[in-house]
Structures are given as C-alpha cells and as structure tokens.
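User: Could you walk me through two proteins back to back? I'd like the raw sequence and the structure tokens for each, with a short line separating them so I can tell where one ends and the next begins.

Assistant: Of course. Protein one, sequence then structure:
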Amino acid sequence: VWSTAEILHAEAKWPAPVRWQELEPGIEPAACLASLRVRSESALALVGHQPQLSRLASLLVSGAPDAVGLELKKGGVVCLRASDSLAPRAAVLRWSASPKMLRRLGR
C-alpha cells in the first residue's frame, strides 16, 4: 500500500504521503473520519487496505460504511472532494485508480 502512495506522489505530483494509523486494517471508518476532520484539504487521496478504504469512502459519500459498493484493486486510491467539512454524506467521489493507472500517468 505504501508503494501506491509513493507512486501517486512521484507520478501524479501529489504531496508526499503521510502514514495514518487509522487507515490500517481493523480500524473502523468512524475512527478514521475523526482523524480526517482535523485536515484542511478539500481533496484527499486515501491509500489503504480493503475493506477499510471502501468503507470509509462509503461513509463519507453516503453516510453509511456499507451503503456504497466500491470495487478497488489492491493498493487502490480513492479521491474524494468535500465542500466544507468532512462528515458522513459530505463528500463526492471524484475518482479511483489502481497502481497500474497511476504509473501510466507519468508516461
């Protein structure tokens, strides 16, 4: 997963990756959301493990961690946009990408 974050940084010119314990396996989406609320960005690229990543994205987009079914490849990336603050149902899914797609950005 960390290599995917590095690819996003190197090939897509996103900011350097930052490790978040809240994206590690076994952490509930609500716990991750609490740590995201202190961030000021309106767009974040989240790189994490399944099913945590898709459950977090579902919570942010729909308000429930299992309402939106996102099929993500291993090491996939999700980009969400929130208008004011990160809260359940406050985000829009902008895009998702696999590591292979990210590598092709640099070509």
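----
Protein two, same layout:
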Amino acid sequence: NMIQTGEIINILNSETVGQAPKTMTIKKIIVKTKGEYPQSVAIDFMNKNIDKLAQFKIGDIVDVNVDLRSREYNNKWYSNIIGYGIQSGAEAVQSSDQLPDSNDLPF
C-alpha cells in the first residue's frame, strides 16, 4: 500500500471492459505529482471504488491510496496503478504565505 499525492489534472470517463458476465468498470484520474521532477500518473479506480471520486474535481490536491499490479501476457509484462481510496490533501499542503506572520502574534 502506498499513497500518491498530487493535483488532479484530468478525470476520464468511465469505461466498461471485458465480456459478460465478467465485466468491470474503470475510471481513470490523472494526478500530477509534486517535487523536482513532477510526473503525470494515471490511476485506475474500479467498480465500487469509482464512487469515491464523486466529490473531487480537476485542480483538487489529493492523497490517493494505491496498489501496483502487474501481469504477464504472451511473455510481456503490463503494470497498472490501482486506486482504492482518495482523500483531500489540501490540509496537508501549506505554502509559506499561509503560515501566520510572527508580527501578527499577540505576544
């Protein structure tokens, strides 16, 4: 289990994959990470976890709980980042201009 923090830069439409009766619905969000070398990371939310995205919009800073999954098919490996939880990361992100000025303190 890992947490990926960043800004939502895109929310893609849901898509249904597979063939009945084994279908699943996937919705991707694209999160831009912070740091010296920011990356745009596609994170898949599946089936019932898609509902967890309802309150978020492009521009929101979020912490996403993710798992990495890989599988082999015809001697090639494929990897996905699977999101299973998401919460607002705005409380954890504070810039220096949001910190109280020492001149504003009552003592």
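The longest strand covers residues 61-73.

Let me know if you want the two compared in more detail.
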